[in-house]
């Protein structure tokens, strides 16, 4: 993988009384009433923060939320304070800003073992521009930089990359370390046979990851909306299923590449088709070669699930990115749920199972199987970029081990 071999860790750092700037990814979904609908990322940030508290550091937490253009109340991090306080067992203080005199004063008042949450760092356009003056202001708040925001590590922003130039030591938190161990370590040195399951809506958004995984895996399973581009490339009718006409040649070349590399490529043999894109659509199961005109494939079928399951039984490491169907609609969630169940079962038998972020994580959570997997990534875009072999700026900026 095109990233650092190992980054400096938090363990061993002299922490007592030190002001530690911790970049976390608290970009959690909120509903219209600003209630947190999934607190996974907050829970994932806890081990590093607790460690710092236990070692009497003064903890300064920084995160973004959403993609605000300037100061936008609905993107304030304030609604996260109660849950964060509950999980940490302390009263987390909240600053109204992330830089400036007022913040400097509040930081100076953090007691040993105390935690301060800074306001959304993206309220400043300088954050995404990776402005050096802004990064210096963030850096001036602390003695140590910890990056635990794996989910944002693919962004070269001031709080994820720039700040590490001005604040040393710059080390990885425990979540960052764990994500890298699994997504870099397990993929670089997998127990074999090694399988990848790639789904999601479009082949265009997964080209990089498929090409990169073809270099490493023994088996590649494809599902989701992208399969229809592969079917059409093979001359099959796909009805009104999602197809990327400009990616037909690419699909053919990926099939050829798999052959050349000796990778067993499994495409679903049957699909669940619908007469419209809706939760209450009429549906039926048809062979992949017999999708009727006017119908669209929205899930993999029972035969495919059986074949996939049997092939997965032979593997020792599995990485999964992207749902098998439109799992948001109950009628078309069976394929994704079946894969989630299979991976949970295999984890119990010692197979390493890694869920590579984004919607597949949502599907595993929905199935109540998250705690059964070897590793569930907190990063959607970041895990995808890492699996594509791209360097993550937030990791590269950290000190070498
Ligand atoms: N057959 C299909 N037709 C249309 N859409 C589909 C089909 N199968 C899956 N999808 C949709 O694909 C979407 C997920 O695609 P995406 O490429 O975003 O996956 P992901 O990689 O898991 O997510 P992320 O990009 O957030 O990491 C889901 O919303 C799902 O409904
Ligand atoms: O949710 C994510 O993938 C991360 O928090 C990064 O957010 P972004 O895509 O807005 O940079």
From TrEMBL:
It catalyses: (2R)-3-phosphoglycerate + ATP = (2R)-3-phospho-glyceroyl phosphate + ADP. Keywords: ATP-binding, Cytoplasm, Kinase, Magnesium, Nucleotide-binding, Transferase. PROSITE patterns: PGLYCERATE_KINASE (PS00111). InterPro entries: Phosphoglycerate_kinase (IPR001576), Phosphoglycerate_kinase_CS (IPR015911), Phosphoglycerate_kinase_N (IPR015824), Phosphoglycerate_kinase_sf (IPR036043). Substrate binds at residues 25-27, 64-67. (2R)-3-phosphoglycerate binds at residues 41, 122, 155. Monomer. It is found in: Cytoplasm. GO terms for biological process: gluconeogenesis; glycolytic process. It comes from Salix brachista. Its cofactor is Mg(2+). This is Phosphoglycerate kinase. ATP binds at residues 206, 328, 357-360. It comes from the Eukaryota. Its EC number is 2.7.2.3. Belongs to the phosphoglycerate kinase family. It holds the Pfam family PGK. One of its GO terms (cellular component) is cytosol. GO terms for molecular function: ADP binding; ATP binding; phosphoglycerate kinase activity. The keyword Kinase applies.
């Amino acid at each position: 993988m095109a990233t650092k071999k190992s980054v400096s860790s938090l363990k061993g750092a002299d922490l007592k009384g030190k002001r530690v700037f911790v970049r976390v990814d608290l970009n959690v979904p909120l509903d219209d009433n600003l209630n947190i609908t999934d607190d996974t990322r907050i829970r994932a940030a806890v081990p590093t923060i607790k460690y710092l508290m236990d070692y009497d550091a003064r903890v300064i937490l920084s995160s973004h939320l959403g993609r605000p253009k300037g100061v936008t109340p609905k993107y304030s991090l304030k609604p996260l304070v109660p849950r964060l306080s509950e999980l940490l067992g302390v009263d987390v203080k909240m600053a109204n800003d992330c830089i400036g005199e007022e913040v400097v004063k509040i930081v100076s008042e953090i007691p040993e073992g105390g935690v301060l949450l800074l306001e959304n760092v993206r309220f400043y356009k300088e954050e995404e521009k990776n402005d050096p003056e802004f990064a210096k202001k963030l850096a001036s708040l602390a003695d140590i930089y910890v990056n635990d925001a794996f989910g944002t590590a693919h962004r070269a922003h001031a709080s994820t990359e720039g700040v590490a130039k001005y604040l040393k030591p710059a080390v990885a938190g425990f979540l960052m370390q764990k994500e890298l161990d699994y997504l870099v370590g397990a993929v670089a040195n997998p127990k074999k046979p090694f399988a990848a399951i790639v789904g999601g809506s479009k082949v265009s958004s997964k080209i990089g990851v498929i090409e990169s995984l073809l270099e490493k895996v023994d088996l590649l399973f494809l599902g989701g909306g992208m399969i229809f581009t592969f079917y059409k490339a093979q001359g099959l009718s796909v009805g009104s299923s999602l197809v990327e006409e400009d990616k037909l040649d690419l699909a053919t070349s990926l099939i050829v590449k798999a052959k050349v590399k000796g990778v067993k490529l499994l495409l679903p043999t049957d699909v669940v088709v619908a007469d419209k894109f809706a939760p209450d659509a009429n549906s039926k199961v048809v062979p992949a070669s017999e999708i009727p005109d006017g119908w669209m494939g929205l899930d993999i079928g029972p035969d495919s699930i059986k074949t996939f399951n049997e092939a997965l039984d032979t593997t020792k490491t599995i990485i999964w990115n992207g749902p098998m169907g439109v799992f948001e609609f109950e009628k078309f969630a069976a394929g994704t749920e079946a894969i989630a169940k299979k991976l949970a079962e295999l984890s119990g038998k010692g197979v390493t199972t890694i869920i590579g972020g984004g919607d597949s994580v949502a599907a595993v959570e929905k199935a109540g199987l998250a705690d059964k997997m070897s590793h569930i990534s907190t990063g959607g875009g970041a895990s995808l970029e890492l699996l594509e072999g791209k360097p993550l700026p937030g990791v590269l900026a950290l000190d070498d081990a």
